[in-house]
Specification:
The protein has 21 helices and 9 strands. It is α/β, with parallel strands linked by helices. Helix 1 crosses helix 16 and helix 8 crosses helix 16. The radius of gyration is 24 Å and the shape is globular.
C-alpha cells in the first residue's frame, strides 16, 4: 500500500469539507454509534446524569473540532476521567448527589480555564515529564477502579456509598443479591465485546451490545421492574434534551476540596488528552503532527463550555479517534459530524435512549477497564525492566490507596529515587547536558553528556523538533551516563518519524549495562566517575 505523499495532504477548513465530506460523514456516523453508549455509561459511572456525556461529545464535535490543533482526534468524555469526576461529586456533595454534580461542574469550568492558560503559555510538551510506567500505572489503576465499581451495576445491585475498599468489600453481598435478568444482559454484553472482533463487519460492537440489551430489557420488562422496585435499571434522560442542562455552583470555590477537584480534572484530563493526541498522530496515514498547545487550548475551551451547561470534562479520546481513522476519516470534519449526529439523535429519538439498560453500559465500561488493566499490560511493563514494573505497581497501589494525584506523585518520587540510587548527580536530575554539532551539510551529531531522564529531557526534545528534515541525525551516547526508558522511547519515536520524513537516525555508543533485554530498556553508558 502506497503511503500518501505530502502533496496529497487533505485540505482543512471549508475546502476540506467540500473535498472529503462523504468519507468524513460516514466515519462520523460510525463513530457516533460507538460514542452514544460510551457517553451514557461514562456519565452514569461518574455520578452525572446520563445526558452529561452526550452534551460533552456534542460540544467536542461541533465546537472543539473547529478550533483544535489536531486532525483526526475525536473529543468527548473518557473512561479515564470517571474516577476523578466521581471522587469530586462525592467529596464536594457530601452525600447530596445533585449538589455534588453542580459543584463539580464549577470545578470543570475552572479546570477548563486553566487548560486554556496552559495551552496559551505552550505547556503541552510538559506531558513528557511523566514517566511512561507511571502513566501506565495510573491508567491500570483507573481500569481496576472502573471494574470494581461497575461490577455491582452488572449484577443489578446498588452498593452502599463508601470508599473503594468498601465498594470492593460489598461484592460478595451483591453476588448473593444479584438480579438474574440484569446479569444475563450484562454478561451477554461482555461475551459480545470479547468475540465481536472475530466477526468481519464495520458495525461497532457497542452498538450490538446496546441493541441486544434493549431487546432483553423489553422481553424482561425491566421498565416495569424499575417502576415497581425503584431500582435504576434503564437510562434516564428527559424527553426534551435541553431540559437536561444544569448550571454550575461556585459556592465552594474557596474550599480545598474544590481546588483538589480542579487540579485533578485539569492535570489528568490534560495528560490523557495530550498523550492520546500524540498517539493518534502516529496512526494518521498522512503523518500529520498536531499542535499540542493549540489542542490543549481548544479542549480547555470545550471543557469551560461543557461545565457551564452540565457536561462532563472532555479529552481527545483514543478509542473513538482510532475508529475514526479506521473508518476512513480525512479531516476534523469527521469529529464535527459525529457531534452533529449525536445532537440530532438525542433531540429526535430520546425514547430509544430511555430503553437502554444500564447493565449493557456497565458491560462496556468493565470491558474498557479490563483493557486498561489487562494481564498483557502488566507483562509489557515487566518486559521493559524490573524497576519499571516496580514504579508501575507502586503507582497502582498509590492510586488505589489514596487518589490519582497522590498515586502519580508517589510513582514519580520513586522514579527519582531510583535514578539517584543508580548514581545520577542531583544537579543532573532536572537539567540535561548535550551538544548539537553540524558535522557537514547533511549530518548533525547530538552528543549526550551525563544523564538523560524523564525529568530533564524537554530541552532535548525541543532542540530536535527544530532540526531540518532530510539529514542524518547521530545520537552519540558514548559520554552519557544513565538514559532512562522514557527517553529511549522518545528517541525511538523521533527516529521513526524523522525517517518517515526522509531523514536518517542512528545511535553510537555501547552500553555498559541494560536493565532488561527490551530494546528500549534503561541503560548505563559509562561508569560513575564521581569522586
Amino acid at each position: 500500500m502506497n503511503k500518501p505523499s505530502l502533496s496529497t495532504l487533505p485540505e482543512t477548513g471549508v475546502a476540506g469539507l467540500a473535498e472529503h465530506w462523504r468519507s468524513d460523514l460516514l466515519s462520523g456516523f460510525l463513530v457516533f454509534l460507538i460514542a452514544l453508549p460510551l457517553c451514557l455509561g461514562i456519565s452514569v459511572a461518574s455520578g452525572f446524569p446520563p445526558s452529561a456525556g452526550i452534551i460533552t461529545a456534542i460540544i467536542g464535535g461541533i465546537l472543539v473540532s473547529r478550533i483544535n490543533g489536531s486532525f483526526l482526534t475525536v473529543n468527548g468524555p473518557a473512561a479515564g476521567l470517571i474516577v476523578v469526576v466521581l471522587a469530586a461529586v462525592q467529596s464536594l456533595g457530601e452525600g447530596d448527589a445533585l449538589a455534588g454534580y453542580r459543584y463539580t461542574l464549577a470545578a470543570i469550568v475552572v479546570a477548563g480555564v486553566i487548560q486554556v492558560v496552559m495551552g496559551v503559555f505552550k505547556t503541552g510538551q510538559l506531558s513528557a515529564f511523566f514517566p511512561t510506567s507511571v502513566v501506565h500505572g495510573m491508567m491500570a489503576a483507573i481500569g481496576l477502579i472502573i471494574i470494581a465499581t461497575q461490577f455491582h451495576v452488572m449484577l443489578g445491585v446498588t452498593p452502599e456509598p463508601g470508599n473503594l475498599i468498601s465498594i470492593i468489600a460489598q461484592i460478595p453481598h451483591s453476588l448473593l443479591n444479584m438480579n438474574t435478568e440484569v446479569v444475563l444482559i450484562s454478561f451477554l454484553g461482555l461475551e459480545i465485546l470479547m468475540t465481536w472482533p472475530l466477526v468481519k463487519t464495520r458495525i461497532p460492537a457497542p452498538v450490538i451490545v446496546v441493541l441486544v440489551g434493549m431487546l432483553f430489557a423489553w422481553h424482561f420488562d425491566l421498565a416495569q421492574d424499575a417502576a415497581s422496585t425503584g431500582a435504576k435499571l434503564l437510562v434516564a434522560i428527559p424527553d426534551n434534551f435541553f431540559a437536561g442542562f444544569y448550571f454550575p455552583d461556585f459556592s465552594k470555590i474557596t474550599t480545598l476540596a474544590f481546588w483538589g477537584a480542579v487540579l485533578s480534572i485539569s492535570l489528568v484530563g490534560s495528560l490523557e488528552s495530550l498523550l492520546s493526541t500524540s498517539a493518534i498522530d502516529k496512526l494518521d496515514p498522512y503523518k500529520r503532527t498536531a499542535d499540542l498547545d493549540r489542542d490543549l487550548t481548544a479542549v480547555g475551551i470545550g471543557n469551560t463550555v461543557a461545565g457551564l451547561i452540565g457536561g462532563l470534562p472532555m479529552i481527545a479520546e483514543i478509542v473513538r479517534s482510532s475508529a475514526n481513522i479506521d473508518n476512513g476519516a480525512k479531516t476534523g470534519w469527521a469529529n464535527f459530524f459525529h457531534g452533529l449526529i449525536l445532537l440530532l439523535f438525542v433531540v429526535l429519538f430520546p425514547v430509544l435512549i430511555q430503553n437502554i439498560p444500564l447493565a449493557s453500559l456497565a458491560a462496556l465500561l468493565v470491558y474498557t477497564g479490563y483493557r486498561l488493566a489487562s494481564p498483557t499490560t502488566f507483562a509489557r511493563v515487566m518486559e521493559v525492566g524490573q524497576e519499571q514494573f516496580f514504579m508501575f505497581v507502586v503507582t497502582i497501589i498509590g492510586v488505589l490507596a489514596t487518589n490519582l494525584l497522590m498515586g502519580v506523585a508517589l510513582g514519580i518520587a520513586v522514579k527519582l529515587a531510583i535514578n539517584l540510587l543508580r548514581g545520577v548527580w542531583p544537579s543532573n536530575l532536572f537539567k540535561i547536558h548535550f551538544t548539537l554539532n553540524q558535522q557537514d551539510q547533511h549530518s548533525v551529531t547530538v552528543k549526550l553528556l551525563g544523564s538523560a531522564l524523564f525529568s530533564n529531557f524537554l530541552p532535548l526534545k525541543k532542540a530536535l523538533a527544530e532540526l531540518e528534515n532530510g539529514k542524518t541525525i547521530i545520537f552519540d551516547f558514548s559520554e552519557g551516563y544513565l538514559i532512562d526508558h522514557t527517553v529511549m522511547e522518545f528517541i525511538d519515536d523521533f527516529s521513526r518519524n524523522y525517517q518517515t520524513a526522509g531523514g536518517h537516525c542512528r545511535i553510537t555508543g555501547k552500553a555498559l549495562e541494560t536493565f532488561s533485554d527490551h530494546a528500549l530498556a534503561a541503560r548505563l553508558m559509562t561508569a560513575d566517575d564521581r569522586k
